[in-house]
Amino acid sequence: MRALQKFAVACLALALSGSATAQFDFLNKAIDAAKSKIGPAGNLLDKAKPVVDSMGIDEPKEVEIGNEFAAVLLGAKPLLNDPPLQRYVNTLGRWLASQTERPDLPWTFGVLDDVGFNAFATPGGKIFVTKGLLMRMRTESELVGVLSHEIAHVVLKHHVNAMQSKAWTDFGGEAASSYIAKGNLAEYKGKLVNLGKEMYTKGLDKGDEYAADSAGVVIAARAGFDPYGLPAVLQTLQAQSAQDNNFSLLFETHPSPTDRLESLSKSMNGRFDSSNGSVGKSFAERSKEFSR
Ligand SMILES: [Zn+2]
């Protein structure tokens, strides 16, 4: 119950933050700077077609599942009480999401009050990054890389597909729709919450992580940012000890940064030019803009 209340507050805060349209100016400049030269990289995301789901999860259901997962995440860590920062991340995230094949999802981006370094996507387009992650971003394009990776998980329906795979036996292989049709809504939601907890502590398939990295780079480039923001973050992580508590969950739920860089360099090979994209601004400058 507490988690759901927090979630309602979060939705309200984020809905209010969506009105800062004047602050899209910097994004328009970013796209002018680079969009024309993406070239052959532009169709990478198109090639990675989402698997057609056999469980009958349509888009409204996907959003509903995502809301349950978001409640799980917000139950563990609340939203950070910093409206300008929330507005900034939400504005940037929505711009990136608008460049994807699923621009019309109810995309919402929030910052969790957590010193750990992490980012989470839920089905249907609710995405969270931690305060600890934001503190460690050196350029805006690095944050763009992280957000685009999470957006790619949603566009490619990785969580929904994982729910359908045999690995997630908590559903007993039963389709969510037939579960609900039998009138077991409360039980269904309980199982969903458990499934969410499992997904965010064990992580997705390694293959899904590599796919989100390469699709994330495409999204960043389409949006006019330096596509090398994500590789830069992975390089930083490479130098980071997995024993550090602030990073342990990330290392447990993702392939090693070295493996991700190797996979990413194959998919980026020759397709991207960092000079075409914007590295964005520093957080100090950006927070001044969003505090006005
Ligand atoms: Zn991921």
Automatic annotation (TrEMBL):
Residues 86-266 form the Peptidase M48 domain. Residues 258-292 are annotated as: Disordered. The keyword ATP-binding does not apply. Residues 283-292 have a biased composition (Basic and acidic residues). Its cofactor is Zn(2+). GO terms for molecular function: metallopeptidase activity. InterPro entries: Mito/Outer_Membr_Metalloprot, Peptidase_M48. Belongs to the peptidase M48 family. This is M48 family metalloprotease. The lineage of its organism: Bacteria, Pseudomonadati, Pseudomonadota, Betaproteobacteria, Burkholderiales.
